[in-house]
Known about the structure:
This is Nucleoside phosphatase family-domain-containing protein. It is built from 25 helices and 19 strands. By secondary structure, the protein is of the alpha/beta class. Strand 1 and strand 2 (18-26) form a beta hairpin.
Amino acid sequence: MGKKWRWGVILDAGSSGTRLHIYKWKDPEKALKGASKHELASLPKLMTEKIWTKKIKPGVSTFGEKVHAVGPDHLQSLIDHALEFIPRDKIRETPIFLMATAGMRLLPAVQQSALTREICYYLRSNTQFSLPDCDMHIQVIKGETEGLYGWIASNYLLGGFDNPDKHQHGKGHHTYGFLDMGGASAQIAFAPNATEAEKHADDLKLLRLRTLDGSPVEYKVFTTTWLGFGVNQARESYVESLEDLYPTSSSELPDPCLPKGLRTTLDGIPVTTPKPGNTTLIGTGAFDECLKKTYPLLGKDKPCNDNPCLINGQHVPAIDFDVNHFIGVSEYWHTTHGVFGGKDDKAYDFATYQKRVRDYCSQDWSSISSKFNPKKVHDPKNAQEACFKASWLINVLHDGIGVPRIGIEDLPSVNMSKGAQGALEKAKTKGFLDPFQPVDKIDGIEVSWTLGKMVLYAAGQIPPRSGDDRWPVGFGSNIVGASSAGAIPDDFQFAGSSWRPVGDGGHHYPHNGTAGWGDGDDDDWDLDAEDLLDRAKTKSTQTGFFLFVGLLGLLVWWFRKRERRMRVYSRFQSFSRRASRGRYSGKYNSGNGGSRSPLTKLTSKLFGGRSSSGGSYERVMEEGEADRFELGDVASSSSGSGEYSDEDPSSDHSRGSSSKIGSQFGRSSGLATPTATSGGGLGVGGMGLRLWRRERLSLPLSAGVTGRRSRAGSPTRMKSPLGGISPLDER
């Protein structure tokens, strides 16, 4: 996939199942190269594909009493799916998250803790994904956090962050509200208008993001959750209310929220012949009555301790539907589009939707079941519960949250300029400027709170601009004056990421979970956004430098063999002597303490030649000598006196019919010295021994073999250089 991409894996552990999501985005340094002005002022661009997602059932929460099975029996199939798409060389630097929602929130704290520990242990033991902090990567998130992530994802996909001028809803407002409903809980998240934001500042979350150029951006968002108000939990509460409504002796409970003629157990399992003693539900198909019987579940009669309140006595700042336009995901989408159609609807119209629901729910179950379309209704249970879900959604939306009933109630007028009105009319074709619009995908990407979490993580990888490093990426309580001072709330949740070059390992932040914030010694913050911009502009200079280094490396590789260096050295020596006979002939000779021409010194350094210092003796070769010596390899007579060996420099025992003289020393110095013959004569015309003695007796103490001290000047050598032993025999 190339070196420029970063990857992220997140597992949404819901109440009914676990869904894998994979995202990828450009490394910040790569994204900066050639970025337009608009792109620099935007958040990182994340990408995903439908095939990268996978959902399995049941939920993680069902493993509360068998925690050791959650890895092999549940998670492994999702991990295997992820490994099919993420490049192998990216695994170690790819973060993995598992974030559990309402299903896990309903478990006892002991089971929650046991499951999260086991999941982290399993992922660390069986995968190579980046998981440096268990508490940050594997957790049961609060409903408020889930709602905030969903709010980020919605505005990210709709363009509310990057193109605020194209999403002016009036009164300077340009973001969208977010509604989510799952099986066990429901969430709401929105940015109140300026008046409400000031009035309820303490109730808001301070969200900080960072654009590609390193600039900080802030939003103040209200988010809350209603645990137990998801469709499955609400259904259970509804059935309990029916049991309380009728006498305990009743074996059949009329259910206006079931299609007419459908009979089920209290758990929703269809039955044809009821068993004696078992209570069953029998559908009456009366949708208006269904609406009335589900309304009390909203808890509108609960006391409100902090006005205003919406559902279940829970405080929510007043919603200005002039500017707050909500999108709804999960059950808001499935309930409006799964059974009742409307996939081509561009906006939610209450009158149209309620008519469809009434027409459907008034049918006999036999008529409904005969029209099952497997491509449209994947599970018959969806069809039998569609009427209840529709009534619950309508009550939550309109009586609970207060969304105006489009088609029946008129919206207040919105004051804006003609230009803004024109932009709104054009944008209405997308269907996101009504008070409420259910969505599943935007521009082909599923709207999921997991995307919001990963957007936050990717934004945290962008280094801040110089001077803007007081604003970390993440969210926390809205402290008065925090925006201007760059304060970090005590409960601030960091993005969990910081910037490092691609391939710099998988641990993107220190183990204290602060994403490198405030450490002072974290390398991740040494390069700010301006540094990256400069680096992106100097790629051509770097290319020239790397080319030079490459050529230098090639030259070093060619000279790696000593024989090649010796051949070049001999040529330089010959040239140096000819030069010495000219300009330096009277100056660089044995009479001046062994000084050499600059060219000779240079070649000695380059090719390993023997260096001289101070008053050390420098051998001066007579004219013609170079032609008589073979550099690095001189043979002795057949009865030779031995071999100068790497293993034993002093050995004088014969190891063959021929030997190399001074193989180690000769190579290190650039010259090989001839040896004496066994008959006491001098090798190479009688001159060799004299030269050899002069050379050996003058070696400096630092010229040993492989780091040993030289013994050339020892008393024994000076007394008997040609005795019964070789001059190199002593130790």
